[in-house]
Amino acid sequence: MTVTENPTPMGFGRMHRKEDARFVRGKGNYVDDVNLPGMLHGSFLRSPYAHAKIVSIDTSAAEALPGVKAVITGAVLETLSLAWMPTLSYDTQAVLATDKVRFQNQEVAFVVADNHYIARDALELIEVEYEPLPVVADAKQALAPGAPVIRDDKEGKTDNHIFDWSAGDKEKTDAVFASSDVVVAEDILYPRVHPSPLETCGAVADFDKVTGKLTIYSTTQAPHAHRTVYALVAGLPEHKIRVISPDIGGGFGGKVGIYPGYVLAIVGSIVTGKPVKWMEDRNEHLTATAFARDYHMRGEIAATKDGKIRALRVDVLADHGAFNGTAQPTKFPAGFFHIFTGSYDLEAASCNVKGVYTNKAPGGVAYACSFRITEAAYLVERMIDVLAFELKMDPAELRMKNLLQPAQFPYTTPTGWEYDSGDYPKALRLAMDMVGYEKLRVEQAEKLQRGEYMGIGISFFTEGVGAGPRKHMDILGLGMADGAELRVHPTGKAVLRLSVQTQGQGHETTFAQIVAEELGISPDDIDVVHGDTDQTPFGLGTYGSRSTPVSGAATAIVARKVRDRARIVASAMLEVSPDDLEWEKGKFFVKGDPDQAKTIQEIAMAAHSSLELPEGVEGHLDATTVYNPPNLTYPFGAYICVVDVDPATGQVKVRRFIAVDDCGVRINPMIVEGQVHGGLADGIGMALMQLMAFDEDGNHLGASLMDYLLPTSLECPSWELGETVTPSPHHPIGAKGVGESATVGSPAAVVNAVLDALKPFGVRHADMPLTPSNVWRAAQGRPIRTDLAIQ
Amino acid sequence: MQITVTVNGESHTRDVEPRLLLVHFLRNDLGLTGTHWGCDTSNCGVCTVTLDGVPVKSCTVLAVMADGKQVGTVEGMERADGLDPVQQGFVQCHGLQCGFCTPGMMLTARCLLDKNPDPSEQEIREAISGQICRCTGYENIVRSVRWAAEHEAAAKAEVTS
Fold first, then answer.
1. Chain A to chain B, count of Cβ pairs less than 8 Å apart?
2. A45-62 in b/e burial notation, b at 16+ Cβ within 10 A?
3. Which CATH number goes with the domain that contains B131?
4. Which of A66, A313, A608, B35 has its CA 20 to 30 A from that of A784?
5. Does residue B107 share a domain with residue B155?
6. Which chain B residues have a beta carbon less than 8 Å from that of A718?
């Protein structure tokens, strides 16, 4: 059977992914597929307690088990000054617990053995005596007088406070509130969730004692940043560290930070002189790697009585777990949460965010959140519906009345963001037309007469992606600019080297298409190299939807640099001035004489030949660049969800989901649509299913995929997508990035739909996840608390 | 214990611990790393293989239970004349992103089409509902399986006409 559909375009357009050839044959190369000669296997002993003093650890029986090569405890790491490591938020985190454990399943000891099974057996033989301590499981009690101090390792620390942070003009906001007709407040929780990609986290570390070279294969979204951190933490010279991020089985932000397992694989390899693999299981992944959200928000919205929104005010209690390990730009301890004014034209806005420690795993910024824009978008989109509820207005009409207008761009928000471009009303209107909004409202009213409950939920989001301008944004002091290198070989085939890497986004295809568009070389003739610090230029990696806005720009620019060189080479070949040449995709020709032309392939060969080039012009056809984004890009979208709710059972059925996305220019629309599909499924999962609660002892109640429910094919409808295209004015190809748009925008649409269905019961708000029992409770007017197993 | 397992048509005899999971036998003893390890609780399905033609989660099957049986993995899907239509469908319809769930999804799809060559969208969704994909939102997986069904039907029609 020959495959002829979807041929390779010479640039932007739908083309099949170059990477699929290996994946459909089972020939991907994930970290767990890396097997080195003599490789050993490591596994963690973890704490059963959320908060306990470690009295003693006896590893002798484990060490005596045949096949065990090393047992490493916190005490061992202390001798190497490695018991603690810095987090990406200038806090510290225990690599292995020394004094006490601070969350359930925290790492206590690490066994290295001949194979995974022996390592697991040895864990059973380690005796740890714990002295349990009172637990802070409820973020709202973290700052209560007398609350147990979690971080008593920090000198002088007498409470669980991490930071206070505010944005916006509080005085002005308060004044607008004081003079507004209508003020509505609501307590809204964005509960703790976990991205849980299907590949858990892991690493293979290989330290060569002779050369002093450390090679580490790891599940990282940021190989270059990891290399620098390893150099700083372990004191290894940076040029002797090679971080390889091979095929990654999904990331979603959970693979940005450095985990104790990576460090222990390195230590294990140094101690044993053999390569060491560490691969966590699902229970470890869900309980110990980065969670997301856990934002307890109180939103207040001020408006005129006819529905002109004037101001927003938000107070947030942010649960960061036992160590402040959020992965985000340094200046923003609450990430980009202060984009919470969303897509609306407001007079004023302000927010306060208070971060606290609790006896839970560290994290907070993960799960396709664009540095907490998920929380911001959810907050504002819920508050709009809360206001609509109070004003008895249609939520679509209320949004239309307050959306920013196209003429207002570039638009500076009350909290200081400069939105680059957009036509918001057009996107909302398109979504409403696609779903048949007015007809659906009629159907809803008719159904209600028959005692059937359907709901229509809208969410309009503005994303801010492509972090970011170096002067404002860094992670651990590393500016958020990314490099690209492009080399065209003599025969006209090219290799592009990028600092960002893919966890499934299809970079090998998309970035080849950008070069193809700029140089007229077929994408099939362009190799994209990524995920290996020895092979690629420095950069901060893939998260926050930054690959296309940052490295996509770098790619276009480096390709244009190559084209500039090609023009000079072509002018020497054709013996004309460079100014007399005109570019047409794939070739230069003499103005007015198109027959006098040289293709990019001919030029590439000539650039490597003995052809005499003008004084000062180097030969070959290559270039490098570092792209420092002048601003973020601001994708946006209008989502509408339609649900049927059975209030007797609490069952929610998502009937339809319409998603209109505007991510600027689309390089490969097939890949863009795939990214949106995945994010929409996330919205269903977070809104309806994914429950990660704790009991009062800090026991994790979502510690397996039997408890933490991820959406399957049966919960997801057939997605209906639409698009508008508003190019970014400052991005070289007008692209904005899309990876996280749907995860940011969709949860509010689903929740708004369910609550719209419950409106006849007088329900104005209920927290995610809206599981059957929570929907039933909400309809009964009973309280819901989804972060704790206490009702 | 000594076991003999036929994997993708090739017989393998090995001494294994009774507790060894089939997924680890395939990956570590036979080097067939296309089958992945994901959750240990039969929920995610990235370890799906066929056992005597039926999809199973190989993280909850012991290697010794496969003694004397036929195991099929993604590495055995490609045919002499090229990719299986299911594999082609996944490429054509962008049915994969990170690729981690893909081998299991494709094997289940193959089994479905062997039993039901013309499945509806709902039948496809039910067939893959024991497996999780975190990237695609399932839409393009469903389309990929439909693509394979339609192209297999067309190829059959060509042969008979």
1. 189
2. bbbebbbbebeebebeeb
3. 1.10.150.120
4. A313
5. yes
6. 121, 139, 142
Query: Chain B window 76-95: which residues touch A at a Cβ cutoff of 8 Å?
Result: 77-78, 81-83, 85, 87-88, 90-92, 94
Domain coordinates of chain A in residue numbers? 34-133+199-249+255-288, 291-467+631-779, 481-627
The alpha-carbon gap from A456 to the nearest alpha carbon of chain B, in Å, equals 21
**Minimal Cβ distance to B128: which of A16, A676, A713:** A713
Residues of A in contact with B71 (CB under 8 A): none
Which residue of A20, A24, A30, A32 is the best one to mutate when testing the B interface, meaning the one whose CB has the most B CBs within 10 A? Answer: A24
Question: Model's pTM, two decimal places?
Answer: 0.98
> What are the angstrom distances between the C-alpha of A672 and each of A163, A413, A505, A631, B139?
37, 27, 9, 22, 13
- pLDDT-based confidence at residue B159 (cuts at 50, 70, 90): confident
Q: What would be the CATH architecture of the domain defined by A481-627?
A: 2-Layer Sandwich (3.30)
Residue A2 has pLDDT above 50, yes or no: no
Q: Does the domain spanning A34-133+199-249+255-288 belong to CATH 3.40.50.970?
A: no
- pLDDT beyond 50 at A578: yes
Residue of B nearest to A26 (CA): B34
Q: Is B103 on the interface with A (CB under 8 A)?
A: yes
Assess whether B93 and B132 both reside in one domain: yes
Q: Does B125 touch chain A (CB under 8 A)?
A: yes
Q: What is the mean pLDDT of chain A?
A: 97
Q: Containing H/E element for A317? A: strand A309-319
- Same-domain status, B71 and B90: no
Tokens linked to A482 = 């990314």
CATH number belonging to domain A291-467+631-779: 3.30.365.10
Which ipTM value was assigned to this complex? 0.98
Domain of B27, in residue numbers: 2-76
Using pLDDT thresholds of 50, 70 and 90, give the confidence band for residue A353: very high
Q: Please report the sign of the dihedral spanned by the C-alpha atoms of residue B132, residue B137, residue B142, residue B145.
A: negative
Token representation of residue B9? 């048509």
Could you tell me if B109 and B145 lie in one domain?
yes
Which of B21, B56, B76 lies at the terminal end of a domain, its last residue?
B76
Beta strand spans in A549-650 (E) = 581-584, 587-590, 593-599, 621-627, 636-646
Residue of A nearest to B158 (CA): A1
Q: What is the pLDDT of residues A665-723, one digit of tens each?
A: 999 999 999 999 999 999 999 999 999 999 999 999 999 999 999 999 999 999 999 99
Within 8 A of A671 by CB-CB distance, chain B residues are 94
Q: What is the mean pLDDT of residues A386-413?
A: 98
Q: Closest-CA residue in chain A for B121?
A: A718
> In this structure, are B100 and B62 located in the same domain?
no
Dihedral sign from CA coordinates of A377, A383, A384, A389: positive
| One domain, residues B22 and B89 | no
Q: Which of B53, B76, B99 is the last residue of a domain?
A: B76
Residues 678-707 of chain A whose Cβ lies under 8 A from any Cβ of chain B: 678-681, 704-706
> B98 and B59 in one domain?
no
**Whether the Cβ atoms of residue A543 and residue A256 lie closer than 8 Å to each other:** yes
Contact B98 A25 (CB under 8 A): no
CB-based contact (8 Å) between A719 and chain B? Answer: yes
Judgement on whether residues B119 and B142 belong to the same structural domain of the protein: yes
Phi, psi of B44 (to 5 degrees): -90, -35
Q: Considering its fold, how many domains does chain B have in total?
A: 2
Partner residue opposite B88 with nearest CB, options A3, A705, A716: A3
Q: Which two tokens stand for residue A144?
A: 């209560």
Tokens at A414, concatenated: 């009350």
